[in-house]
User: Which sequence fits this backbone?
């Protein structure tokens, strides 16, 4: 059967008070995995009064020695301190959930630039800023694959800035040579336009197989088959690259391309979910930055007249290679530091350096759970509507740890207040009163208790 990626859906009973959710999900998910499977991605798509609806991405077919050297996605290291000398923000818009902002082609990039102006460093992931031939990362931004971002918040990896990466590009063998040429032209454009260092471009034959699907929640998921050839290439050239860009065909029904562009933004982008599963796996196994761009299946699709599309999809409508945004992001994606001693170096950013996480309201996964456990402040944005249905306010937050705001303008204001050391409520009116509470101690408390009993 080879090495494959697949998605599973299941329900878990509600944990009392939503306490200890990281360990609860680790134990609860294990019965749904075989001895040959290793989890790479977890999302809680909705929470009811009785159970959590979960989606778990897992890889099967790895050797026992490979599985034994991998860290669990649930591994958690509590940060020893909160670095108040920096104000660094993590921005997440999960892939494949139909987010109004960030659910299509880099349409959350303006949000990244806005929030980047309110912090010292903004750490975000490809789904936020990838827009086919465009990538509008803020100058103080770090481009981090989603699983690495989760591990950063979990405290198990650090990020170290680089001047530039050697980016290995891996593309599909395509029956139409035009698409191979498009990928090569995108690579050469990056080499000449911003100085990309690409040691080699490798064509896979046979190709890996990515199949896009929709889960029960409506979110984009999928399957990946034939990963052996990809891993062989990554193993063979391991000393030559610092980051990996993959461009391959994603199998979808032939009508999906036109249906998507004609949906006016109502159709969930079908490609992103399976792409995230693939890059989660590559970055988890090899501890390198990775990103994926889809290759179109046929010239008829590439040449189809989409008309004037929803602005959130326009970046896709004007591109055929879809690769440049990936190359731009990986060019300076930070090095992943896994050595606990190395993580103490002053140049490495860790969970101790993260001040806040910004997410769409309702999104519950490892980043949110890690922030909850680490004591990192979280801002949820209501206006960024999406498929995930979780009441985040019900989680056991510490006082002042969780803020739910209407939009990203307000999120930027809350970030600015937190950075300045100002309670966000202090700049609103009416301002609440502080109540004076009397506390009886010692013999007075005992006398009061005795009197109450006699009465």
Assistant:
């Amino acid at each position: 059967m080879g090495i494959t990626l697949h998605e599973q859906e299941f329900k878990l009973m509600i944990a009392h008070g939503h306490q200890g959710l990281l360990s609860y999900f680790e134990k609860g998910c294990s019965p749904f995995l075989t001895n040959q499977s290793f989890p790479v991605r977890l999302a809680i798509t909705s929470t009811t009064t009785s159970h959590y609806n979960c989606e778990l991405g897992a890889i099967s077919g790895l050797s026992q020695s490979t599985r034994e050297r991998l860290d669990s996605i649930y591994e958690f290291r509590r940060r020893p301190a909160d670095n108040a000398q920096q104000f660094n923000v993590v921005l997440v818009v999960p892939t494949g959930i139909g987010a109004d902002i960030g659910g299509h082609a880099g349409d959350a990039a303006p949000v990244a630039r806005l929030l980047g102006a309110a912090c010292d460093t903004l750490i975000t992931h490809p789904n936020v800023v990838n827009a086919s031939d465009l990538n509008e990362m803020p100058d103080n931004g770090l481009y981090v694959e989603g699983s690495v971002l989760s591990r950063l918040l979990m405290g198990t990896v650090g990020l170290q800035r680089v001047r530039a990466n050697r980016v290995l590009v891996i593309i599909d063998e395509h029956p139409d040579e035009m698409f191979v040429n498009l990928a090569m032209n995108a690579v050469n454009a990056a080499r000449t336009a911003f100085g990309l260092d690409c040691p080699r471009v490798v064509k896979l034959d046979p190709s890996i197989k990515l199949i896009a699907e929709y889960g029960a929640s409506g979110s984009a998921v999928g399957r990946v088959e034939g990963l052996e050839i990809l891993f062989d290439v990554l193993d063979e050239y391991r000393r030559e690259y610092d980051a990996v860009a993959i461009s391959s065909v994603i199998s979808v029904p032939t009508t999906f391309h036109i249906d998507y562009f004609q949906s006016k933004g109502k159709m969930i982008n079908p490609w992103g979910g399976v792409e995230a599963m693939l890059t989660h796996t590559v970055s988890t196994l090899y501890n390198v930055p990775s990103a994926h761009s889809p290759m179109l299946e046929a010239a008829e699709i590439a040449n189809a007249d989409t008309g004037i599309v929803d602005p959130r999809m326009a970046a896709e409508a004007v591109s055929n290679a879809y690769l440049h945004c990936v190359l731009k992001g990986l060019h300076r994606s930070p090095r992943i530091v896994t050595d606990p001693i190395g993580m103490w170096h002053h140049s490495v950013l860790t969970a101790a350096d993260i001040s806040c996480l910004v997410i769409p309201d309702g999104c519950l996964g490892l980043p949110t759970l890690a922030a909850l456990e680490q004591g990192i402040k979280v801002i949820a944005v209501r206006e960024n509507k999406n498929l995930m249905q979780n009441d985040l306010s019900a989680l056991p937050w510490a006082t002042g740890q969780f803020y739910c705001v209407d939009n990203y303008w307000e999120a930027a204001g809350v970030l600015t207040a937190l950075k300045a050391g100002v309670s966000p409520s202090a700049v609103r009116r009416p301002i609440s009163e502080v109540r004076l509470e009397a506390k009886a101690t010692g013999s007075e408390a005992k006398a009061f208790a005795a009197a109450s009993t006699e009465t």
